[in-house]
Amino acid sequence: MSLPLILACLWAVVANVIAMFPSRDNHWRNAYILIAIGIPILVAIGYRHGVLLALLVMVAGMSILRWPMIYLMRWLRGLLSGKGRSL
After folding, report:
1. Reduced 3-state DSSP string for 19-68
2. Pick from 15, 67, 71, 79: most CB atoms within 10 A?
């Protein structure tokens, strides 16, 4: 197994361990940190193994961080319908 795939597996384990602990801000700060760390890992996987595997790992990461994705989709839907607020 290559280093980017090992890092992706480690990222998933760390994300699940972080989710087990209580948080005052419902883990939003942790989610931002995990997203910032996960993007370079995805780029490395895409560069080393191809886009298809990078997309598969991205879907797995999106399932772990589903609430930031849900809010992003709601914001984009509102923006496209003209009812959304700007950032």
Report:
1. HHCCCCCCCHHHHHHHHHHHHHHHHHHHHHHCHHHHHHHHHHHHHHCHHH
2. 15
Cα separation, 75 vs 22, in Å, equals 27
How do residues 26-60 score in pLDDT, each as one tens digit?
A: 889 999 999 999 999 999 999 999 999 999 999 99
Q: Which residue has the tokens 């930031």?
A: 68
C-alpha–C-alpha distance, residues 30 and 52, integer Å:
27
Largest pairwise CA distance in the chain? 46
Report residue 35 as tokens: 């997203």
CA distance 8 to 2: 10
Distance separating alpha carbons of residues 27 and 19, to the nearest angstrom:
7
